[in-house]
Amino acid sequence: MSRDSGQFDDEAGVNLNESERAGLEELFPEIFFEIESVEIVHRAGDTCDALVDISYREQDTTSPSGAPAANRTIRQTVAYFVRPDQRMPAFSLQPAGIVGGLSRSVSQFGNHPVVSLPMFPEFSQRFSLFSFQPESTSRLFNREVVNLLDRDPAYRVTTAQGRVAVYRYHHTEPAAERPLFYQNARAIADLLFQAAATIPDTGLTAQEEMLQTIDKMDGFAGARLRSQIVTSVEADAFLKQPPPRSIPRKIRRLARGGAGFTLLWATFIFIVASTFLAASFTLGFDGMAWFPYLFTPIPPIAALVAYFSIRRLWRCRRILRQGPCVPARVVELRLTQNYSGNDRMSDATFETSNGRVTVRIGRGPASLARVRMQSGETVRLLIDPANHKRGLWVEGWAADAPR
Fold it and tell me: Residue 18 has what pLDDT?
């Protein structure tokens, strides 16, 4: 549709650009979804309205009690609105008491704090609101916003800076209903952007407000999150050390990524499989002498996985302790098809005085790299002393860096 007429804009374009696609993935960080189709409804400058059909797999919670858990394919249409220059606190809104699909992934119930809206108790009973920016989010929900969202409780909303996504869980909009769905979603997005523009400026960035919220969180979830967060001050203090550097625990944990966990599992599998084979060949299997040979590939494979994990861990330690810190500029950022846990990886290419260095980074650092690439700002990169084509971008791990 065009901005005002309610008709589809034939000249709007045919697909999301890489930044818009990455922004959509950042809204739903825990879901490995596939984009089946994209319909650009309106585009003007760097703003974009799109209807995106996505699909993903999730566990079927409707299976009969006692039946094995099965996966099912979920398909739904997401109305996606991009306004890069407009403020928007990050939150997830869904019907109360429902755990499923993208809403489940965004809220990450064990970690995200629930935002209460004491001015609208009935609305709070019908909807669950989650955010790491509770103060800004609560100010966003004025009477006009609440009344609009209350009209159709089936709509779910998730937001981030400059972005709003509206959808109905497990519902793909038919062609005949897409114009109405877009109009309703657009009304929600416009009202949210308007309300966000009226929120008083507290002087805090979204990242700083998030860190304040995490500092106040109690229990295991708060302690776990605090143990994983590196601030700009901590990253700067580390990089200012002359080699050999002392490596703080949080920086060491982020540098390892999933390699430490992989090493533990590979070691465990190697020990169990080797013990089983030794016992099998010693005790034998009556009439099934061939059976142990089915498992003989497992220990070598586990040993190979452990070897590569150890090599990666050693390389990270070498870069962190001995790697020279050099100025660089981000010149290219490309999404990959690789994941580390639930984190989709990107390849960031940095230009240094000795040539280009490509570093594989996660979703959070990729957001910061995109900002640095657009601004042309110089960053600091640690280079592998054994291979100047490899490096680590410690500054990208700073959780409070504006994105």
Answer: 81
